[in-house]
Amino acid sequence: MTGPLAGIRVIDVTEGAQGPWAGALLADLGADVIKVEKPEGEMMRRSGPLKGGHALPNAGLNHGKRNIVLDLKDPAGREILLRLIRDADVFMENWRRGVPERLQVDYDVLAEINPRLIYASASGFGQTGKYSHKATVDYISQAMGGYFSLTGPEGGPGERPRFIAIDFTSPLTFVQAILLALLAREDSGRGQWARCSQTETMIAVGAVRAAEYFASGETPQPWGSGSAHVVPSQAFLAADGYILVECPTEDSWRALCATLGLPELAGDPRFDSNAKRVERREELLPLLTQAFLRYRGERWLQRLEAAGVPCGSVRWDIEDLYDEPQVVANELLIDREHPEMGRVRTNAVPWLFSRTPAEYGELAVAMDRDREELLAELGVRDHAAATATGDARR
Amino acid sequence: MSAPLEGVRVLDLTEGDGAPFCTMQLGDAGADVVKVEPLAGDWARPLGPPFDDGDGPLFMGMNRNKRSIALDLDREEGRAVARDLAASADVLVESFPRASDAERLGLDYETLSAANRGLIYCDLSLLERSGPHADKPATDLIVQGLSGLTRFVGERGKEPLRVGSNYAGVTAAMYAAQAILAALFWRRRSGEGQYVETSYLRAMIATQQNYLAAHSDPDDFGGPFYSAHLRSPVRGYPTKDRNIEFTAAYARDPRAFQLLLERVGILDEVRADPRFADRDLVAEDQIALQPHLDRAFLDYDSDEVLQLIEDFGLMCAPVHDYDSMFHDEGILEQDMLLTVEHPTRGEVRTIGLPWKLDTPGSVRLAPPTLGEHTDAILAEIGYDEQRIAALRADGVVR
C-alpha cells in the first residue's frame, strides 16, 4: 500500500455503515484493515439489492479489507482477536453499549495488551447518558439529530431526506477521531479511547442551522428549494422544467437581473442587498418567477453561466450521473470487478493525494477468506478455528 | 493532555457555504487557524438570519476557533503577505472559485511548496479542478442538484427541494479535513508535505456509494429502501406532543411489530384491512400501514410511546426540531451545546465537538470579527509595527 497510513494495522469489528465505511476509508488511506466478522455474517451481507446472491452495497462498503470470521463469544475466537490486537494500531467497534464488557474486549482489557492501541468506538447516541443504550439506524438518528426538521416544502412540518444522510457522514468523524488519536500518539507514544456518535455528527452537519437557532432563538424551518440565508437561491420553473439558481453575492444578483432582462431590478432600492431580498422575498420572487417562464431551462443555464451566476439542473436518477460530463471527466465513478458479482460500480476515492495516492483494494471479499494467511502471520495454529466457526464458514 | 493539533498552523483561504467547516474542524482539534479574508470579509458574513449588522449563521456556524486577517489579494502587496504567511504554515486550505486562481495569485502549490517543503496544501473545490464545468460558478444548492442529492427529497413531478442544510459543503469539508489529517500523519513519518484535493461533487458521489453499487445490474431491488426516493415524504408518526420515528425492522422478536400494534389498540382495525386479515404482520408492512400508524399514537405523549416501543425491542427516537433537540437532556449530556465569548456579542452558543478524545479539542475562540487579529498575525511572522502601519495605511490589510 502506498497511502499515508501505510504500515498502520486496523482491526475492524464494526457492522452496518458507520463503522464499515470508516474502515474502508482507512483502507483507501493505505492502512491494512482486517475485518473481523461474526459467524453468521454482518447485517450488510444480506442488506440491499443482491447480485449472484451477494449484497451489492456491501461490496463497496467493505472494500479493501482482509476478512476473518471469529466467534468472539467462544474463548478460542476471542483469543485470536487478542493476538490480532497485539500488533494492531487501531481497533474499531460500534457495538451496543455493554457488549465490549460482556465479550471482555473493552478498552481497559485491550489497552493492557497493547498500550499504543487506538480503541475507537462509534455509537448512535454516545457512550454515556440517557440514550446511550439505544440501538439505531440511519433514519432513527436523523430524527434524533433534528434533521427531519430542516427539509421540506416551505412552512411545512419538515421531512426526512430519504437517503442515508447520517450513515455516510458519521464515518467521516469516526475516521477523523482515529486520525487525531494516531497523531496524538506520535507525541505521547500512547493510545487512547476515541469516541464519536451519530447525533454528534448530525448536529455538526447541521452546524449552520444550529447557528441560526442560537442567534434567533427560533427553531429553523424548511424553505422548500429555497434558503433561509440567501434570496434568490432556489428552483425556478423555466418553460420546460425546473432549474436551480443562486445569487450569494451582489455581483451575481446584478448579473441575474441583466440576464433576465430586468435591469431596473438591479438598481431597485427595495432589493439592493441580500438582507432586503430575504425580507421582501414575497414581493420579489413573483417578478423573477414570471421572467423564468419565458425560455427553456437549458437556454437560461447557458446565459446564466456565461454571466457568472451559480446555476444548474436537477438530476432525478442515479443513471443521470453516468454520462454527466463533469463526473466522467474527473473519473468520479469507478467500475470494479468482483469474482462472483462481476461489474460493480462505486465511487472514486473521496480525496486525492499527490505523494501518497490511494490504491483501490478488492471489493468486499468472502467471509473468512484470509484466515490462513492471518493466522500464519500471527504464528497461530488453527486448532480451535474449525470448531469455532464450524459450518458458518463460507 | 494537549489537543492533537496543538502547534499546527493552518492558513485558511476559504470562504462561503461549506469549505470553512474544514478549517473549523482543524481548529476544534487544537490547530491555530489563520483565516485570510478579503477586505470586505468572507462573503458569508452578511447572510442571516438574523439580518442585523452582525455576522450571520453561515459564518457563525463554520468559523469558530479561527483568527482573522483581512488582506487584499487583488494587489501584489497583499499576495506577498499571503505568501509570507504560507511560508510558516503547516497546512493551507483554499476554495478559490476558479481553477486558475491559485496560480494567478501566486498562491499555488508549486510556488508555495518551493519555499516550504513540508506544506500540506488542500484544494477544496466545488466541482473539481478539471473537466468542462470546472470553472462554472456553483454553490451547495447547485451541487446538490448536479449530484442528484435532490432526488431524495420532496416528490417526483413537483418542485424540487433542497436538503435543508449545506450538506454537500460540510461533507466535502469533512473529507478534506480527513485528507489533511492523514497527510499530517504521513509528514510526521516522511518529513514531506503534499497536495491533496477533494470537492463537493466528489464528496456527494462518495456519499451515494450504496446507491451506485445497488444499481450495478442487481438481480432484484431488495425491498423499499433503494427506491425510497420514489416514496412520498417521511415525517414519522404523530403523538400528543410531537412526531416520533421507529422502525419495525431489526427486531429480535419477529412478532414485536404486531405486539406493539396490539398494545396500542389498533390491531383490530388493521385486521379489518383484507391485506392484513389473516397473517402475521412483518416489518415490510410498515409503509403500507402508515395511515393506521398515523392514528396509533395520538393518545400518547411521545416519551410514553417511545418507552413502549423500546420495550418491544424496536428502535425509535423523537423527531426533534432544533428547539426540542437542544432542550433534550439526552442530547445535552453529549456536550453538544457549548458557549464561547464573542468580542462584540458577549456569550454566544455554539455546537459541541463531533468526537470525544482523551487529548481533547476545545472551543477557545468565537468566530472572529473581520481583521480582528491582523496586527497580531503579521507581528508573528516578523513584520514590525512600522511595516504593519504602512500596509494598513496603504489599504493592503485591514
Structure description:
The complex is a heterodimer of chains A (394) and B (398). With 394 residues, chain A is of the alpha/beta class. Chain A is 37% helix and 16% strand. In chain A, the strands form four sheets. In chain A, strands 5-2-1-6-7-8 form a six-stranded parallel sheet, sandwiched between helices. A three-stranded antiparallel sheet of chain A has the order 9-10-11, covered by helices on one side. In chain A, strands 3-4 form a two-stranded antiparallel sheet. In chain A, 58% of the residues are buried. Chain B is α/β, with parallel strands linked by helices and 398 residues long. In chain B, the strands form three sheets. A six-stranded parallel sheet of chain B has the order 3-2-1-4-5-6, with helices on both faces. The two termini of chain B are 36 Å apart. At the A-B interface, strand 3, helix 2, helix 6, helix 7 and strand 8 of A face helix 2, helix 6, helix 7, strand 6 and helix 8 of B.
Short description:
The complex is a heterodimer of chains A (394) and B (398). Chain A has 394 residues and is α/β, with parallel strands linked by helices.
Q: Which class best fits the helix and strand makeup of chain B?
A: alpha/beta
Overall form of chain A: elongated
Q: Please compute the radius of gyration of chain B using only Cα atoms.
A: 26 Å
- Strand numbers in spatial order across the main sheet of chain B: 3-2-1-4-5-6
Low-confidence stretches of chain B: none
Alpha-carbon Rg of chain A, integer:
25 Å
Number of helices of chain A: 17
Q: How many β-strands of chain A, per DSSP?
A: 14
Most residues in contact, chain pair and counts = A-B, 161 and 148 residues
Derived from helix and strand composition plus strand pairing, the structural class of chain A reads alpha/beta
Unreliable residue runs of chain A = 386-394
Fraction in beta strands of chain A? 15-25%
